[in-house]
Amino acid sequence: MKAKLLTLILLLPSSLLLLNAQTEEKKTVKAKMQSATVFFQGAELTHTASYLLAKGENEIYIEGLSPTIDKNSLKIKASNGVIISASEFSVDYLVDKKKNVRNKRLDDSIKYYEDLYGKVDTDLKITNNLLTLLQKGTDKNVSGSEKGLGIDELVKTMDYYKLKSTELQTQQSTLNNKKAELDRAIDRLEKQRDQESLKNDKTMGILRLNVSSPLAVTATFTVSYYTTSAGWTPYYDINIASTNKPIKIQSKSKVRQTTGLDWDRVKLTLSTSTPSNGKTAPLFRTWFLKPILPTAPLGIGSALQGRTSGVNIAQNAYSYDEYQNQELEETVVIRGSRTHKKESATPLYIVDGVEVDAGYFNSLSPDMIKDVSILKDASSTAVYGSRGSNGVVMITTKGMGDYVSQSENELNMSFAIDLPYTIPGNGKEQAIDLSTKEIKAEYKYYCAPKLDKETYLLAEISGWEELNLLSGKANITYDGTYVGESYIDARSTQQKLALTLGTDKRVSVKREKLQDYSSKKTLSNNIEQVFTYRLTVRNNQNKTIKMVLKDQYPISMQKNIDVKLLTKDTTPWTANKEDLGVISWEEDLKAGETKVYQISYEVKYPKESNLNL
Length: 613
Hints:
Ferric Hydroxamate Uptake Protein, Chain A, domain 1, six-stranded mixed β-sheet, alpha+beta
């Protein structure tokens, strides 16, 4: 009886510890991602999680969130009257995640091929050793006797060497080929595994919640937040069956994400809006007019004044006349520090934690400053000793991210996709179709032979702003053939959207200078030159086309150089852009028709001048 009682007493503490450990076990629940709204840069993710709460106070942990979130954007809602009294987001860097099935298969395949590679490599080494032994044994057998081998024995030795050598060398070649094949297979599998490892799944976001429940009830928690580890890019496929049919414009998108999660069958929305970047609308202040006195160029010291308290900038003053020949001197003085002579009042400069001299400090551009702080009197000497007796200027310079600004030029639209989508977290772009529209276009053939003798087929789209297009690349297919890549600029102010469909050699253009109509004369102090060019266009197609032909004459920006377009010698034009000096002819060309155009202009300039004619 005493033994049983003693055993019970010994087991009691262990039982209490086990009960306490079970009581203190974390109440965790895995969050399921429901939707994602993806912006050009960034995304808003929404998760849900359900948990059976006890009446009163509860502490639960929601796992499966992205580790790359903007904590300021975190929003949490609870159902069934549950009140969230406190929340804390953290990142678990020690999470032991199970590998997905694809990674497991890749690792198994690599190990299988590596084992085979090891066996083949061993067989190859044995075969190489056997060949070496065969060679040495044969040499020793042939040269071992003083009289040498007899003919019969020599023939037998040679036959045996030939047979075994051929067998071993064939085996050696087979093993080398198999080894190379296995090496290529392992290399391909490792590259694929490296692609899978691009996923940002080494950490996991965890949300701790302190909640109060009026009843023992199952509550659903909705968690949403913004992350920068995602984005999308618009692009287009433009298909043109023929010039007598409408253009088909297919809007597409490329979505990518490295949020640390695989988006599995989520409701996806693509948005062109830009999350707030902290900017505020500007307001006017009273504009007081006052004389501008000569001052030194803005230096690093001037950049400090007004950005931090305790800094004065002293400048030597000069009259305006003296300023023309003098360089103003700028000195940084920290207010509140002990009085010193001017030559010894220079403060201590610390840039990004490193002590620098005044020369390096003054060489910094004001645009490089991110943050400024001042230490003086006891605060400066306590840290830097006597070196900080004149005060300390501590500067933090900007990093690369501080130079990047976000522009907002696109229209705000959203594309809600009804089908659930799966987007892996490896950063690879996933193509998603958005919409397909058809619109009529006007087709023209265009050539500017002064710049390029090729003739281009253009498609001009009127009313293209009604398509709500976004800026992006466009892949163009004409008559079932890919002709190249173009770019759609949604910010363009042109009335028509022009797409280049490629060149067409069936429309030929020739430009030549007419010597009989060109001349050069010297008149007293000036030179007068006349230039005349003939442009010949021929339509070798079996249909009528609309042709746009352009040429150019120079524009003078100086009074002593005179340029005159000779109207009587120039073929009447459709348009003349006088600010550019560009003439356009736009006409229909019938099948097999040839037309000739002419441009002529006169240039008068001083004879000592050498112009780019």
